Amino acid sequence: MKIHILTLFPGAFDSFLSHSIVKRAIEKRVVEVSVHNLRDFTHDRHRTCDDRPFGGGPGMLLKPEPIYEAVEKLFPQTPRAARGKKRFIYLTPQGKRFDQKKALELSREKELVILCGHYEGVDERVIEEFVTDEVSIGDYVLTGGEPAAMVVTDAVVRLLKGALGNDASKEFESFSGNLLEYPQYTRPAVFRGRKVPPVLLSGNHRAIESWKKTQAARRTKKRRPDLLKKKEKSRAPRD
Ligand code: 6GU
């Protein structure tokens, strides 16, 4: 997969891309990530990427020109490159909430373009022309789309074949089952007076499996009852 990130703050991605699973996936050529500085597509002395909204209102907007020029440079053979065909994600608190299902859907694409929002937003013509998905990572406000781009990139990359061991896909299945994970313990069996639940040391695999299921259900009910509703829905037969 190839991921293009369009941003005003390319440096924000340095440490993200040079660590852990994403770094390894890049080294293994499972994914190629290129970060493009929108200011490189301006022509004025100040490298201006923002301007005031027509009709008034607070704050500044991302100007269309640098974004258009960036897309035209990235995809010279396919004018209006992104449009319809390539997935073009605009990160904004106005977007649809990102979740594991969306991560899986995006992980099946060959190429993604991710535009990091800033200021009060972007000129609407950019959205009309290029954007296929407006995505938010949650109900809170960030100062810019960069952390959200890292969240989306991380969630997508770990689903790519070869990004990590087989365990990963299992992990996904457990979440897509809409249950939270049961509590887990490693050695020592007693640590500073706290004991691991005895059933886990019992060697009784049936009892262990049943304990895990109960714990996962209990935890989900307590913390994320919304997931249990989703689970019921996804189980309901279709007509
Ligand atoms: Cl994608 N951008 C910003 N600025 N804030 C957010 C967000 C995105 N998702 C949640 N909050």
Describe this structure in words.
With 239 residues, the protein is of the alpha/beta class. The chain is 38% helix and 17% strand. The protein has helices at residues 14-17, 20-27, 64-74, 100-107, 124-130, 146-157, 167-176, 205-223, 225-235, and strands spanning 2-7, 32-37, 50-51, 61-62, 87-97, 111-116, 133-136, 190-191, 194-195. The protein has a 5-stranded parallel beta sheet, with helices on one face. A two-stranded antiparallel ribbon has the order 3-4. A two-stranded antiparallel sheet has the order 8-9. The longest helix is centred in the last third of the chain and has 19 residues, at 205-223. The radius of gyration is 22 Å and the shape is elongated. The two termini are 36 Å apart. The mean pLDDT is 91. It binds 6-chloroguanine.
Short summary:
The chain has 239 residues and is of the alpha/beta class. It is 38% helix and 17% strand.
Distinctive features:
single chain, 239 residues, alpha/beta, Alpha/beta knot, Trp Operon Repressor, Chain A, 2 domains, five-stranded parallel β-sheet, two-stranded antiparallel ribbon, 38% helix, 17% strand, binds 6-chloroguanine
The number of distinct β-strands equals: 9
* Alpha carbon gap, first and last residue: 36 Å
Number of domain units: 2
Q: In which order are the strands of the major sheet placed?
A: 2-1-6-5-7
Q: How large is the radius of gyration?
A: 22 Å
Helix content: 25-40%
Unreliable spans are none
What is the CATH superfamily label of the largest domain?
SPOUT methyltransferase, trefoil knot domain
What is the residue-averaged pLDDT? 91
Shape: elongated
Give the helix/strand class.
alpha/beta
Estimate what percentage of residues fall within beta strands. 15-25%
**Corresponding CATH architecture of the largest domain:** 3-Layer(aba) Sandwich
Counted by DSSP, the helix tally is 9
